Amino acid sequence: MSRDDQRIRTFARDGLRFEVDDAGPLGGDVVVLLHGFPTDRSSWRAVTPLLHEAGLRTLAPDQRGYSPGARPTGVDAYRLEELVADVLGLVDASGRERVHLVGHDWGGGIAWLLAGNHAGRVASLTALSTPHPAALGRAWRRGWDQRRRSWYVAAFQVPALPEQVMARRFEALMRRGGLPEEDRRRYADRLATPAAISGPINWYRASRRSSVPAHRVHVPTTYVWGCEDPFLGPDAARLTAEHVEAPYELVELDAGHWLPEMRAAECAAAVLRSVARGSAA
Asked: Could you give all domains of the chain from N- to C-terminal order, each with its CATH number?
């Protein structure tokens, strides 16, 4: 682990090294922020100052496949078991027994699984865009709406070709999804090559080979969902409440998918409410 004045700059797990943005009051409650696909830890830069003002310390890692020192080859290296264990490694590096967990998109999926399987390490959960994995599965089985929205998951199972397409059309695809120009260019600078995007795409491939159970969550939880999200629909959003057995809040925004970048104030407010409930529990 690399430290600078007690700040965590990197942490290591299983021979991989993950870069981390560590900011805010050192003595504050720790909030771990998990980015989604295909972004990076900078996706939180409009959210974190609002959390720091409230006295919270934030740890935002580049996750497996995104951090230059943590890009293993092979699909199995990206199984959910490994992704959850990476986050637990960061929690251990923080020196805290419990942290407040926040995740967007794939980061939200990992946050749900970590909270459901390691509740003793999580004080509160805030999921942005991503419903509980079991609710998402139920919505997919119920009808065509979520299947239509999730078409790309099947497309990503094809070997090699998705990397070529994503690298060549990265900015155009992100623009179609509504991501602001400044953000999509920043992410493209890091990910818009076949080699760089391969690990992030392998998250989708490896999920089918994984066996992490999607347990009900027993920690205070806030779920923030944009009703204009093109990828994650209303059925899973509504069903998520049935998979939380703790104080729970659904925040529905008139917004799309890229909530940390485009609705930072609402995201931060939701995190603060979740943190307050988790601290009181």
From this structure: 2-150+212-280 (3.40.50.1820)
